[in-house]
Amino acid sequence: MTEIKHATDDTFESLVIHNDKPVVVDFWAAWCGPCKMVAPEMEKLAAKYEGVVDVVKVDVDANPRLSEAFGIMSIPTIAFFKPGEQPAGVTGFRRLEDLEQTFGLAALSALSAVES
After folding, report:
1. Which of 32, 37, 96, 108 is catalytic?
2. CATH code for the domain in which residue 107 is found
3. Catalytic residue among 35, 42, 58, 79, which?
4. pTM of the model
């Protein structure tokens, strides 16, 4: 099973901002029903794009500085951090296919295969 890392206010920069790979970040909370629905989709994404895209979860209740820094007003919020670019994000439940299309993940996977 692919590991999904859990970032904190203290580890976010090293896990996400300074990562040399694109990162999908799931901003969530334990009490959030739609967040629980997104969790399996994040697991599928992590498995499908292992080695190409990292998946990181951020508990917004335990890490309020990150929520404030990124203006997280609604959860789940799923953000895509690509090295050297501004993050893009979507709010609410999304299936794997929606996330792939929104963030252009299939193209990243194809590019990675060509570079290998």
Report:
1. 32
2. 3.40.30.10
3. 35
4. 0.86
